[in-house]
Amino acid sequence: MKKMIPVIISAAVIMTSCSNNNSAGNDGDSSSLSSDTTSMSANSVDASAGFVKTVLNGGLLEIEMAKLGERQSSDASLKSASTMMIKDHMTLAEKIKAYAEENNISSSDSLDHEQLAKLDDLQKKKGVDFDKSYLGDMLKMHRKDIDAFQDFSKNTADSALKSIVDKGLPTIMGHYEMLRKINKEVKATVDPGAITNGMETMPLK
To answer: Do residues 119 and 65 lie in contact, with contact meaning Cβ atoms separated by under 8 Å?
Structure first.
């Protein structure tokens, strides 16, 4: 019987060692998972903040341009569309600003130099020349908005901001289709050339 004692002790030592190794391995896996989760969360926050700043800044320019359209357009349909876009973009901006405040995301409330120059250039145009430039710019900006909203919604893990984006997207798409229709009407009646360099033929995703 005495000869069996070392064997039993050795087996106990091996089992204890294996248990410790497994525990250490599990701790390592847990630490790695926690690190990956933290990294993913940080990336999501950064993506949301970047999206918010870009959308608010771009939306500010669209609102100011729509105000010009409301005042200076020679086309009744375009004037009416401009009034609608001002209201809709301001409503969407307020929702995104509320999200930004809740999440400590700062954004600019003023146009940058490039945007101011673009607005000033548009303001100097009159009549049909204004309508052509205004339509072309608004079509391009709304097309860009649609792509940005769809891409963010598809890839984000931020459910709160995704909800705002998904609810706002149909409005932006509605503006785009409305502008395409007006563009075709203006093109048919006042300008035989391409007003927006083929933007009206670009299909929605």
So the answer is: yes
- Read off the pLDDT band of 108 (50, 70, 90): confident
DSSP 30: H
Distance CA 6, CA 30 (A): 36
**Amino acid found at 35:** S
Share of the chain above pLDDT 90, in %: 63
For residue 44, give the amino acid letter.
Answer: S
Whole-angstrom distance between the N-terminal and C-terminal Cα of the chain?
A: 81
3-state secondary structure string, 62-122?
HHHHHHHHHHHCCCHHHHHHHHHHHHHHHHHHHHHHHHHHHCCCCCCCCCCHHHHHHHHHH
State residue 192's pLDDT score.
47
Give the whole-number percent of the chain exceeding pLDDT 70.
70
The residue behind tokens 């060692």 is 17
Is the distance from CB of 131 to CB of 192 less than 8 angstroms? Answer: no
pLDDT digits 0-9 by tens, 167-203:
999 999 999 999 999 998 876 555 445 444 444 444 4
Name the amino acid, one letter, at 31: S
Q: Distance (Å, rounded) from C-alpha 41 to C-alpha 99?
A: 17
For the stretch 34-39, contacts whose Cβ atoms lie closer than 8 Å and that sit 24 or more positions apart, written own/partner, are: none
Buried-state track 119-153, b at ≥16 Cβ within 10 A, e below 16: beebeeeeebebbbbbbbbbbebbbebbebbbebb
